[in-house]
């Protein structure tokens, strides 16, 4: 396993920002699916393939993280903050894996096809069962709230490191090595 002292590798940075955009999109799409019945069919058609794309990318991201350890947190970071940072990252990874799997399972249990694009459907991964569908629908909603809350905490912590601590934690994900020119926090 490789460890880079001051930054995340390029693959980690690209996947982080790509998935951040995708997850924020999914959160808004999810709200829109519930709030705007007129737009629901179009949003569902976007929601399903985007969820599966997130599932595939989080697997790649986990593989990359296991091969390339992240840079260490600042030595002067209080222990509780370091523990919270590690816990929140694993909650994010867990939610990014669980959300699409629970969604896929939910649709399978409901007997709904998982249409990726015209002519290609994903196979069901659980048997058709209305009671299971209801439980998975509740779980999917609960996970969405957990993911949203964790994203807010993650973003808040990132901005805290950028604007208050000015300790390079944000830059470790935002920039690669040697990209410190015009950095107001340095």
Automatic annotation (TrEMBL):
Membrane topology: Multi-pass membrane protein
Cofactor(s) in the UniProt record: heme b
Predominant localisation class: membrane
Transmembrane domains' residue ranges: 12-40, 46-63, 90-115, 142-164
InterPro entries in the cross-refs: Cyt_b561_bac/Ni-Hgenase, Cytochrome_b561_oxidase, Di-haem_cyt_TM
UniProt domain Cytochrome b561 bacterial/Ni-hydrogenase: residue ranges: 7-176
Keywords: Cell membrane, Electron transport, Heme, Iron, Membrane, Metal-binding, Transmembrane, Transmembrane helix, Transport
Domain of life the protein comes from: Bacteria
Localization, UniProt: Cell membrane
Pfam families, per the entry: Ni_hydr_CYTB (PF01292)
UniProt similarity note: Belongs to the cytochrome b561 family.
Protein name: Cytochrome b/b6 domain-containing protein
């Amino acid at each position: 396993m490789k460890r880079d002292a001051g930054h995340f590798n390029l693959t980690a940075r690209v996947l982080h920002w790509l998935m951040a955009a995708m997850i924020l999109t999914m959160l808004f799409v999810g709200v829109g699916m519930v709030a705007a019945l007129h737009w629901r069919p179009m949003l569902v058609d976007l929601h399903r393939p985007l969820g599966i794309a997130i599932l595939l990318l989080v697997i790649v991201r986990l593989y990359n993280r296991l091969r390339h350890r992240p840079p260490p947190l600042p030595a002067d970071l209080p222990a509780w903050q370091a523990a919270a940072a590690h816990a929140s990252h694993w909650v994010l990874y867990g939610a990014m894996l669980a959300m699409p799997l629970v969604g896929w399972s939910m649709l399978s249990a409901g007997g709904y096809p998982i249409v990726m694009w015209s002519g290609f459907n994903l196979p069901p991964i659980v048997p058709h069962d209305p009671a299971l569908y209801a439980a998975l629908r509740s779980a999917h909603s609960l996970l969405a709230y957990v993911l949203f809350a964790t994203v807010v905490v993650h973003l808040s912590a990132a901005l805290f490191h950028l604007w208050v601590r000015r300790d390079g934690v944000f830059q470790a994900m935002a920039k690669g090595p040697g990209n410190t020119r015009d950095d107001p926090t340095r």
